[in-house]
């Protein structure tokens, strides 16, 4: 029954807080659903679930229901065990879902362009994608735009009681709801003028082993497949498609070569191969020996505005002049680029007489021009888009780890989080988090002012966690001049900037961590905190020292509270209350303009709750630069430490 409930898509049974800066695969291995226990080894994760299954089919159903990752092996019985494989890699801040990297971006009116460069608006196509997007994002977002159309997989309804004309509306997905009877992941029609975040995606980068498995699978299905060295000097798979395809178009001078891509889309991130995919023409020649000889279609054609009135049946001697400007290659996104001179076969383009003009290009030994009606086979590549090479196993290691003896290891093994703090991180895999600046960067000195939140919206456990986290990151950086500020309505310097290796400073810091009391204020004033942080960093005179403000807060009640008692008034006399956040923005701009860096650790979802809060954080962080999100204070852990180290451990 349990398996049936999961497979039916009742996603409210599944709850997870993704580690803010660990990959999706690693998170689900460290903290599996249903109280499973995971063990991560390289690209594999073995999870043991304390549940009974009576057949291999039932065990596989459980494994697939509890993780979106490829099930390599499932074992029935009690307990049930599942071995998952990591097949693709995403950036640390993205959600890895099948062969896509998912991220939520840009709170604006609906726009297909809102996702920005390298991303597109994601269209949910099946129940599995729907389920996992809702599971992963419901703790962070309430609702967001999707790329779905009305006649697609999602079946939206109107969010109000009155029936509206939905012809001009777009579809949003609501994943965050506190109402038990409302299913997470319900789709609604919405006016495109409403400002929401956008669900964005890009192709994930496949590992070499994954790509090889794809090629072997197509070979086993009877499709002639091979591999060749691509322009990244990496091996890329190619499969011969015997479909004999012409090129359609609205008129004889307007061939639509982009439609050829449909033939390769049955393959994961499949696209029509071109000479741009190979390191040189000789590599393509070598691959051709594996496939039936002939010409192959590709997505290249004559520029439609280039007309030639052919009067004689021989090669036009002026065509060498026209080659570079009048023939174009179109990539899988239909972006055009000029064709390289060396990609043409000798004496081509020929522009000889034919029943139809030679408006398209085919691959033979190199490029030749060809009439659009000619029916030709094509070659597909897949696994990774043409702009991404396959990954080697060692490329999964973090920035402060190396690949050694078949696994990732911290550059300094003693700086592995599981060794430094086995109580909190002992169950983590080796080298998931390496808590040091690493390499030659560690010789550099940084000056950092930490601003920690000690107001009543922070639970006692959250305050204790912030203090221990400060100790963790000061130890990790090594050469650091650090100071600590307490964020309140009067935001004050608790420890002045000093050398962490100085015994007196260290003694004061350790005592502060051990004894500083929790929550002695209601409100906070971030603007004052930023100003006083600048004053502290200004005391560091050495221009070679990189200067940073690391700020942690949930963002609530951002103003200076004067209170009713006169002796409290002086604490805010140097600045008015700042409900609009203008003083905060002014001081943040001053941090950036001085060449200092601001690292903003946003706890919870406050800045998502209204447009004003979101816009303020966007201005403070200069377009969400160096913004690190964490769901709760007690989740400020080694993943957040490593995310901060990735910023402050850069060369200064």
UniProtKB/TrEMBL annotation:
InterPro entries hit by this protein: VWF_A, vWFA_dom_sf
VWFA domain mapped to chain residues: 447-648
Keywords: Signal
Gene3D superfamilies in the record: von Willebrand factor, type A domain (3.40.50.410)
Record's keyword annotation contains Glycosyltransferase: no
The keyword Transmembrane helix appears for this protein: no
Protein name: VWFA domain-containing protein
Organism per entry: Cylicocyclus nassatus (Nematode worm)
């Amino acid at each position: 029954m349990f398996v049936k409930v999961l497979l039916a898509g009742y996603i409210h049974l599944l709850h997870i807080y993704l580690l803010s800066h660990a990959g999706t695969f690693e998170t689900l291995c460290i903290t599996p659903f249903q109280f499973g226990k995971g063990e991560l080894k390289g690209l594999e994760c073995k999870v043991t679930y304390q549940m009974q299954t009576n057949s291999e089919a039932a065990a596989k159903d459980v494994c697939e229901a509890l993780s979106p990752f490829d099930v390599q092996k499932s074992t029935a019985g009690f307990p049930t065990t599942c071995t998952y494989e990591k097949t693709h890699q995403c950036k640390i801040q993205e959600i890895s879902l099948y062969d896509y990297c998912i991220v939520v971006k840009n709170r604006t009116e609906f726009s297909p362009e809102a996702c920005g460069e390298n991303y597109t608006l994601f269209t949910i196509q099946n129940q599995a994608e729907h389920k996992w997007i809702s599971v992963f994002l419901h703790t962070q977002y309430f609702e967001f735009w999707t790329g779905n159309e009305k006649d697609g997989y999602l079946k939206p309804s109107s969010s109000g009681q009155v029936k509206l004309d939905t012809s001009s509306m777009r579809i949003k997905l609501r994943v965050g709801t506190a109402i038990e009877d409302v299913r997470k992941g319900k789709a609604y029609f919405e006016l495109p003028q409403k400002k929401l975040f956008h669900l964005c995606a890009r192709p994930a980068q496949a590992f070499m082993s994954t790509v090889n498995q794809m090629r072997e699978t197509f070979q086993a299905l009877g499709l002639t497949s091979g591999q060749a060295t691509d322009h990244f000097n990496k091996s890329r798979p190619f499969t011969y498609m015997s479909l004999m395809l012409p090129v359609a178009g609205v008129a004889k001078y307007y061939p639509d070569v982009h439609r050829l891509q449909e033939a390769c889309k049955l393959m994961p991130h499949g696209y029509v191969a071109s000479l741009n995919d190979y390191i040189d023409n000789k590599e393509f020649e070598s691959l051709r020996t594996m496939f039936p000889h002939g010409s192959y279609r590709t997505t290249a054609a004559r520029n439609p505005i280039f007309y030639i009135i052919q009067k004689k049946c021989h090669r036009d001697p002026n065509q060498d002049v026209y080659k570079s400007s009048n023939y174009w290659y179109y990539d899988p996104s239909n972006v055009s680029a000029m064709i390289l001179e060396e990609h043409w076969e000798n004496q081509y383009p020929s522009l000889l007489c034919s029943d139809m003009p030679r408006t398209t290009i085919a691959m033979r030994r190199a490029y030749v021009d060809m009439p659009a009606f000619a029916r030709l086979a094509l070659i597909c590549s897949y696994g990774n888009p043409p702009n991404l090479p396959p990954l080697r196993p060692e490329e999964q290691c973090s920035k402060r780890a190396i690949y050694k003896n078949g696994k990732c290891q911290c550059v300094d093994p003693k700086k592995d989080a599981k060794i430094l703090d086995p109580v909190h991180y002992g169950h983590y895999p080796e080298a998931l988090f390496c808590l040091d600046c690493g390499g030659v960067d560690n010789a550099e000195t940084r000056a950092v002012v930490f601003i920690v939140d000690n107001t009543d919206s922070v639970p006692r456990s959250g305050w204790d966690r912030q203090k221990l986290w400060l100790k963790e990151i000061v130890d990790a950086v090594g050469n650091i001049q650090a100071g600590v500020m307490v964020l309140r309505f009067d935001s004050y310097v608790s420890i002045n900037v000093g050398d962490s290796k100085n015994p007196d400073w260290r003694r004061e810091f350790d005592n502060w961590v051990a004894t500083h009391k929790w929550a002695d204020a209601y409100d906070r004033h971030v603007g004052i905190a930023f100003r006083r942080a600048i004053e502290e960093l200004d005391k560091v005179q050495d221009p070679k020292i990189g200067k940073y403000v690391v700020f942690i807060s949930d963002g609530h009640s951002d103003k200076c509270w004067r209170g009713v008692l006169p002796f409290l008034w002086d604490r805010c006399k140097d600045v008015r209350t700042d409900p609009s956040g203008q003083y905060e923005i002014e001081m943040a701009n001053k941090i950036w303009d001085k060449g200092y860096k601001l690292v903003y650790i946003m706890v919870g979802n406050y800045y998502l709750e209204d447009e004003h809060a979101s816009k303020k954080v966007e201005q403070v962080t200069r377009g969400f630069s160096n913004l690190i999100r964490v769901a709760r204070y007690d989740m400020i852990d080694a993943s957040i430490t490593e995310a901060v180290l990735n910023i402050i451990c850069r060369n200064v």
